[in-house]
Amino acid sequence: MKKNSVSKYDDFGNLVSSKYSASIQGRFSVAPMLNWTDRHCRFFLRLFSRQALLYTEMLSANTLLLSKNDHLVYNNEEHPISLQVGSREPKILARCAKLAEERGYDEINLNVGCPSNRMKKGFFGAYLMNEKEQVANCVSAMREAVNLPITVKTRIGIDENDSYSFLSEFVDTVSTKGGCKTFVIHARKAYLNGFSPKKNREIPPLNYERVYKLKQDFPSIRFVLNGGIVNLYDALQHLRKCDGVMIGREVYRNPSILMKVDSIFFGKLDPVTNRKEIFEKILPYIDNELSQGTSLNHITRHMLGLFQGLPGAGHWRRYLSEHAHRPGAGINILVQALSEQLLI
What we know:
The chain has helices at residues 21-24, 39-46, 61-66, 90-102, 117-122, 132-145, 164-176, 197-202, 208-217, 232-238, 249-253, 261-266, 275-291, 296-300, 313-323, 331-339, and strands at residues 28-30, 54-55, 59-60, 81-86, 107-112, 150-158, 182-190, 222-226, 244-247. The chain has 344 residues and is an alpha/beta fold. The chain folds into two domains: 21-266, TIM Barrel, CATH 3.20.20.70; 275-339, Up-down Bundle (Four Helix Bundle (Hemerythrin (Met), subunit A)). Strands 1, 2, 3, 4, 5, 6, 7, 8 and 9 form a nine-stranded parallel sheet that branches. Strand 8, helix 10 and strand 9 (244-247) form a beta-alpha-beta unit. Helix 6 runs parallel beside helix 7 and helix 15 (313-323) runs antiparallel to helix 16. The radius of gyration is 20 Å and the shape is globular. The active site is at 114 (proton donor). FMN binds at residues 32-34, 84, 153, 186, 226-228, 248-249.
């Protein structure tokens, strides 16, 4: 890995001198979710936790390099933030890594777990589990190009390659030849044929023990467990046998579970104590985005679960869904949605 003269790295390839280094190690993170974890979603989630590592949506390398749109834009409040990228080409990934470093991202994550048709056609994503040498080359190229931690997100298996030996050989190759020191493991196998991404998230059985065994066999490597975790209690239990936990759709459905993450997982003061504080904190952000031409519903679609489990939560969701997309919709829509059910 290329290192400059002032940076210090720990045994896992993380920048010790970075104020985000503890979070970058992935003790607690929110999963990258395609079409969901955009910049508005990440800003919203950051209000609940200052320490949790947030991820971008998976972005293909070609999209980053060739699109006329700026897919790397984010708000500085989103740190620590990891860019998840998908490709099978080391040189192209190295170029993406340089762009991410220039833009101030805290980590780059290579997607080796998504089973969508687009990934299959491009021979990357989960398909790359079958090409451990190529994954090692990709990781190595990025590590040579930048000073950022390079991590890999993958599955425990793919199609008929569903043995522990297959998984351990993948980890061994990518870590020794590629230099990857952190793996995020979704504890389900992936099916490339006949299963939609949704089915691949739900039908293949979870196998946490396989991830635990990886940690036993590769103690110097960090393993972050993903898949099926729905509360902080279960997350803490997993931390007894692995280095980090990642929660995805449950956080999106009920983001309030993040409110205790900083104190429970990082020993830090939680930034908020109730959901009304979140509502008040995000209003200036929304006001600023509206002034720049952002449509209200592009932000509020991520806020539907803000009052999950509280009286009036259903009305909150319905009111935003029915009104936020209308031309000229502004802050008054949120105030009205909140006040009509006496949530305040």
